[in-house]
Design brief:
Layout lengths: L1 E5 L3 H13 L3 E5 L2 H10 L4 E4 L8 H10 L6 E5 L4 H9 L4 E4 L4 H15 L6 E4 L2 E4 L4 E4 L2 E3 L3 H12 L5 E2 H8 L10 H13 L4 E4 L3 E4 L5
Parallel strand pairs: 1-2, 1-3, 3-4, 4-5
Antiparallel strand pairs: 6-7, 7-8, 8-9, 10-12, 11-12
């Protein structure tokens, strides 16, 4: 899952990014408000962490822009503005949650999980294909009822493929779901992950569409 972190305090941003990456999230970090707007326009995020006091464009303006784009992405304000008036204004602008600095990283993780659960409440948390069952909330996979151990990146790839199993997912789309900006990507990284997944779930479950990408494949017979 991809999260946008808009925070101009580099030390705090690095701590948040490191913590959330250990939770399995892909983090795009920007320090300026105008860069945050560009990111929101170009990418789909599961959650946005937004400081209100960003340079160039304020967090309030970013949130207003996001809602004008009719994107219902969960937004959590992370800010030192702690008065009741500030909290009320932030929530009335359309923020889903409001976290005052300093805060614990454990609490931040819990609030992100809560917002993603709310976002998915009208969707099944289970994705099913053939004898595979992917639990998005528990981040587990079973095959014919037996637990299959996946790495975080293997889980993300399978999640992407099973969201629309009849559709082809391009290599670029898979890379975007796995890596943040600036990450070094090995030229054959996706192929290696697909190879490892096939070993775990069956060689016929993921089909390569030459020149296009990958999609799920039904067993024949």
């Amino acid at each position: 899952m991809r999260i946008l972190l808009a925070e101009d305090d580099a030390s705090q941003a690095e701590s948040i990014q490191t913590w959330l990456e250990m939770d399995g999230y892909v983090i795009d970090w920007v320090e300026r408000g105008d860069h945050a707007i560009l990111a929101i326009e170009q990418h789909q995020y599961e959650c946005v962490l937004l400081d209100r006091g960003l340079p160039q464009t304020s967090g309030d303006q970013i949130l207003t822009t996001l809602r004008k784009l009719q994107k219902d992405t969960p937004v959590i304000f992370i800010t030192a503005r702690d008065s009741i008036d500030d909290r009320v204004k932030g929530l009335d602008l359309g923020a889903n949650d409001y976290l005052v600095k300093p805060f614990s990283l454990e609490e931040l993780s819990a609030r992100i999980r809560a917002q993603i659960r709310l976002q998915q409440k009208n969707q099944s948390h289970l994705l099913i294909w053939e004898d595979l069952q992917l639990d998005i909330q528990a981040k587990t996979l079973t095959k014919a009822g037996k637990l299959v151990n996946l790495t975080a990146k293997e889980f993300q790839i399978l999640h992407k493929l099973m969201q629309k199993p009849e559709h082809v997912v391009t290599r670029e789309q898979l890379e975007e779901s796995l890596y943040a900006w600036g990450d070094e990507i090995e030229s054959n990284a996706i192929e290696v992950f697909i190879y490892q997944l096939r070993k775990k779930i069956g060689t016929q479950m993921i089909k390569t569409i030459r020149g296009l990408g990958y999609r799920m494949h039904k067993a024949e017979g």
